[in-house]
């Protein structure tokens, strides 16, 4: 199996490792040190060598932070990880605090006057550092950049090696546009900003721009590297020689020079006197400090690859559609198994995860999972980011819900889908809450909205039915998704949080409202959607957009109270299921197709 159920950390990590970190801090005259979750590339998912917060504390979530002072320490997490952090972290060493409410800045305001708090400039964005420095100043303390990271020093020879996965071409049949054309477009946008060059540090942007893929980041085909792209479209790509495959130089062409990462600092110094675009949200403070020290003028602007990468071309969208049909057939086989064998002998979480992975593997073209499958039975369903382990594994009970959030990586697309399935007879409350979640999902899916609309402007539509019953959920409604890239991809999203990025044609975004009852069950219904131009209507005055469902798989009809749905919602739901049957039915075995006939029958 690609997914394991082992735990890479345990609560002993804090007691074992914090004293070593404090020794390294003391040797540098530091009273404290900041330990962000992010690495040198601001990755969400990290290679083992860069998972410093996990090594220091034991916490393995995809978002968080740590502060280690000479006499106390704290780990900060958001609402997704409140249970997980208490299971993974020794609270005798680390205080558990909220990442969102107050967060690290509020904690820094409590440090002693005159304290020197170290930070690694390669791991923090400039925007984040500004807030941290202001908080330290209010406390009368100072933040000091370090040359050597105390966590890395304490980790020493036990630290895993940096990943060296080969970097391979992403064929034009999947990319849809030559790298030279992409670089010309990016170069033109750099010139439009009055700049001479852009420093690109986001691995997804590098993979997209040069039409390559790698394997340095778990579940995501990313190459860890950096690039400098000039306004004329030429580029310098800084890549470890061990990652360079024999056909890569010819693939990149003579307008791209391959250089080793140890040449990067000197290359930045060569930009002295020039204007250079750097993204303060995706590049660390080290780049800003290094360029400024070299005499370059830093232009703070969005990574020029971000928007063209988010707005997929026609080839990418056709590939994504085929990937989702293929993946939908695998998921439908799994749902058939749950609806038959799974109702007689309910599976445990590990069995469910393994079974679904096997169906995806049987396609013969699965490159990887797009994230570790969330197979959440019973009360674990109330934990939106739960991942089963050997220790936590539970068997689904009769009368319970099984929530399965999963996805696959294929050369032509990245999938992410959640289905909630009743095991045995669901309670009336489960059916009601699931139907409310479905109403929100359908509201987003059928929406027509004016060009220029942001995801934050439509998020409330997914929550209205829940709000009417005094209910809500604490995560966003949707995130961007790449094409054989990251399953979480910006800049678009659908959430309560303000977002200035309009939803534009070609963007892929998830539609995943949910409901979670602590300790009892969880519900989430997730499809991926493509933003598409909407057809004109008589009398219409503005260009409009709509969503096209990418994900094709049955939704459990046993969890729907038809009486709570409007005639429009019923017609919409039936039309979706008719499409699922039409497009997925021919791809599955006769017995699965026969089950689909009932599972996709009109309400």
UniProtKB/TrEMBL annotation:
Q: Which Gene3D superfamilies match?
A: Creatinase/methionine aminopeptidase superfamily, Creatinase/prolidase N-terminal domain
* EC numbers: 3.4.11.9
Keyword Protease listed: yes
Give the GO molecular function terms. Answer: metal ion binding; metalloaminopeptidase activity
Example GO CC term: the record gives: cytoplasm
Q: What class of enzyme is it?
A: hydrolase
> Domain Creatinase N-terminal: where?
21-146
Pfam families named in the record: Creatinase_N (PF01321), Creatinase_N_2 (PF16189), Peptidase_M24 (PF00557), Peptidase_M24_C (PF16188)
Any idea which UniProt keywords this protein has? Aminopeptidase, Hydrolase, Metal-binding, Protease
Show where the Peptidase M24 C-terminal domain sits: 544-603
Which family does this protein fall into? Belongs to the peptidase M24B family.
- The name on file for this protein is Xaa-pro aminopeptidase
What species does this protein belong to? Answer: Caulobacter vibrioides (strain NA1000 / CB15N) (Caulobacter crescentus)
């Amino acid at each position: 199996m690609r997914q394991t159920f082992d735990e890479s950390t345990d609560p002993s990590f804090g007691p074992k490792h914090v004293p070593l970190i404090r020794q390294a801090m003391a040797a540098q005259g530091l009273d404290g040190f900041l330990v962000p979750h992010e690495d040198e590339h601001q990755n969400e998912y990290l290679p083992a060598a860069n998972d410093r917060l996990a090594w220091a504390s034991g916490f393995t979530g995809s978002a968080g932070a740590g502060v280690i002072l000479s006499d106390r320490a704290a780990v900060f997490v958001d609402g997704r990880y409140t249970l997980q952090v208490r299971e993974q972290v020794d609270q005798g060493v680390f205080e558990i605090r909220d990442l969102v409410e107050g967060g690290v800045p509020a904690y820094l305001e409590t440090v002693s006057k005159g304290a020197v708090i170290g930070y690694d400039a390669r791991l923090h964005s400039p925007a984040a550092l500004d807030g941290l420095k202001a908080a330290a100043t209010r406390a009368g303390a100072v933040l000091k950049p370090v040359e050597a990271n105390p966590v890395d020093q304490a980790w020493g020879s036990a630290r895993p090696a940096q990943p060296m996965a080969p970097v391979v071409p992403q064929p034009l049949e999947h990319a849809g546009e030559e790298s030279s054309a992409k670089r010309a477009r990016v170069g033109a946008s750099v010139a439009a900003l009055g700049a001479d060059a852009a420093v690109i540090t986001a691995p997804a942007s590098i993979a997209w721009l040069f039409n390559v893929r790698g394997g340095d980041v778990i579940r995501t085909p990313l190459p860890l590297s950096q690039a400098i792209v000039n306004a004329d479209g030429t580029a310098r790509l800084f890549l470890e020689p061990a990652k360079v495959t024999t056909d890569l130089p010819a693939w990149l062409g003579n307008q791209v020079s391959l250089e080793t990462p140890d040449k990067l600092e000197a290359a930045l110094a060569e930009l002295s006197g020039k204007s250079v675009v750097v993204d303060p949200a995706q590049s660390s403070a080290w780049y800003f400090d290094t360029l400024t020290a070299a005499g370059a003028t830093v232009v703070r602007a969005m990574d020029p690859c971000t928007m063209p990468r988010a707005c997929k071309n026609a080839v990418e969208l056709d590939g994504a559609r085929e990937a989702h049909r293929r993946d939908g057939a695998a998921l439908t086989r799994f749902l058939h198994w749950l609806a038959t064998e799974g109702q007689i002998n309910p599976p445990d979480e590990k069995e469910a995860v393994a079974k679904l992975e096997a169906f995806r593997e049987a396609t013969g073209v699965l490159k990887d999972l797009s994230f570790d499958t969330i197979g959440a039975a019973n009360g674990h369903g109330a934990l939106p980011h739960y991942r089963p382990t050997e220790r936590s594994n539970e068997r689904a009970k009769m009368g319970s819900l099984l929530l399965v959030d999963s996805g696959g990586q294929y050369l032509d697309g990245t999938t992410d889908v959640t289905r909630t399935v009743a095991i045995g007879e669901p309670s009336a409350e489960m059916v009601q809450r699931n139907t409310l979640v479905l109403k929100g999902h359908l509201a987003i899916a059928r929406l027509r909205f004016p060009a220029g609309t942001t995801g934050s402007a439509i998020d409330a539509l997914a929550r209205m039915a829940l709000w009417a019953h005094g209910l809500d959920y604490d995560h966003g409604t949707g995130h961007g998704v790449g094409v054989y890239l990251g399953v979480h991809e910006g800049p678009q999203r659908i959430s309560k949080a303000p977002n200035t990025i309009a939803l534009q044609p070609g963007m892929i975004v998830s539609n995943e409202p949910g409901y979670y009852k602590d300790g009892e069950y969880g519900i989430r219904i997730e499809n991926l959607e493509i933003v598409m131009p909407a057809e004109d209507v008589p009398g219409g005055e503005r260009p409009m957009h709509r969503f096209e469902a990418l994900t094709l798989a049955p939704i459990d009809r046993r969890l729907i109270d038809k009486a709570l749905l409007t005639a429009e919602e019923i017609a919409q739901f039936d039309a979706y299921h008719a499409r699922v049957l039409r497009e997925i039915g021919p791809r599955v075995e006769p017995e699965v197709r026969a089950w689909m006939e009932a599972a996709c029958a009109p309400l």
